[in-house]
Amino acid sequence: MSPISATLTPTPRPSTRRPDLRLYERRESQVRSYCRAFPRTFVRGSGSYLFDDEGGAYLDFLSGCSTLNYGHNDPALKQALLEYIEKDGVAHGLDMHTEAKAEFLQAFETLILKPRDLDYRVMFTGPTGTNAVEAAMKLARKVTGRTNIIAFTNGFHGMTLGALAATGNGGKRGGAGLPLAGVTRMPYDGYFGDGIDTADHLAAMLADPSSGIDAPAAILLEVVQGEGGLNVASDAWLRRIAMIARNAGALLIVDDIQAGVGRTGGFFSFERAGITPDIVTLAKSLSGLGLPFALTLFRPGLDDWTPGEHNGTFRGNNHAFVTAAAALKHYWSDDAFEREVARKSDALKGRLETIARRFAARGLRVKGRGMMMGLDVTSGEIAEKITTACFARGLIIETSGGHDEVVKVLCPLTITDGELTTGLDILEKAVTEALGTELPAAAE
Ligand code: PLP
Predict the structure, then answer these.
(1) Integer angstrom CA distances of residue 162 from 148, 215, 424, 441
(2) d(C-alpha 177, C-alpha 159), whole Å
(3) How far, in Å, CA of 163 to CA of 129, rounded?
(4) Is the pTM of this model over 0.90?
(5) What is the pLDDT of residues 369-411, one digit of tens each?
(6) What ligand 1 atom has the least distance to the C-alpha of 159?
(7) 158 lines ligand 1 (CB under 6 A)
(8) Is the CB of 222 under 6 A from ligand 1?
(9) 77-331, which class in CATH?
(10) Which long-range contacts (CB under 8 A, 24 or more apart) does 167-174 make?
(11) CATH superfamily of this structure's domain 335-408+429-444
């Protein structure tokens, strides 16, 4: 029996009329992507739901790719922003001192850094994740005087050229238009299956002066690879990599843009492994309300920047500072939210495992950690059938992985038990529909 309790929730009601897409087809670039899978015009977002212009209601298991960990328009965050706008609070401030920035820094120091015994300088980068990664890579190169950065198979770090060089996805790399340099790719934890420790492989390559690997400025990784297919690095592997980095004189950069801000349980995804990265990147759910906001954090001793050396007009998104501070105060003042996320993660895992067991003969398996879990359904074609069938039932859900073979649950962390059950019921129906014959349930 699933530990998710059945509570009353709104029912997903997809619109059935064929949408008129002529405006988008005529005027918007071909580069558009998510809107192709979810071809509706959305007008409202509330909690775990999105609503379209025909009154259709969709349960959102994509959450802006983990940007809406607190759901759409969280009332506490929205109220804080409305009050700030109402009093003519500074909206844009370059990197000037503002009341909103001070409140954010204070809350971040008191509620996030101090309780975790972390001493990081906070760098406000341009507001996208990729900009925070660029800053991290630049800083590591500047501090060490080295150029090479080790990144991993299936890693995803952003679309600007430095971060793209560290990204594994061939389709995205293909858009660069020039050779992507300065990064050496290494196999992530588990890349060759059980029994091959890829940390050994990395250690051996770095210890051999004739391996052809230039001494690295940094080792850059995600603790759970969001876009790369929900691959999870074990705590032991992470500790090994941290030690390998230290021995090689390289900095450890954890890209926590998707896995951070509670998505895998703790505020930072690396907490449970007991490692302290030299540099950390954060973005996506940091503002809490979906407003662009990114940070690069680093040990104070690494703060080698000269003023303005990594600049950006939108480093002072004060509206995002307001909602981010409100989110920290509302959700991270004690461990209640973390415990709640852990409870829901267990429920999510249990339910996904039940589905995977039913279709074990078809090779289904559960991947991921925390509220960043999904089903590897063995091919991108099957995954697309499933996500399409989900959307037809009012569930927005996407895929990830090298072949888009993982159906990824990224629902809001604030989702109710009833909504989670409803969404997973739809997912199970869609899996059953996509895979044809329903197999008998395996014994519990
Ligand atoms: N790093 C990780 C781990 C990500 O998942 C992403 C985006 O999905 C990025 C970096 C890039 O962030 P952005 O799209 O805000 O540039």
Answers:
(1) 11, 18, 38, 48
(2) 12
(3) 9
(4) yes
(5) 999 999 999 999 999 999 999 999 999 999 999 999 999 999 9
(6) 16
(7) yes
(8) yes
(9) alpha beta
(10) 168/228, 168/402, 169/227, 169/228, 169/402
(11) Aspartate Aminotransferase, domain 1 (3.90.1150.10)
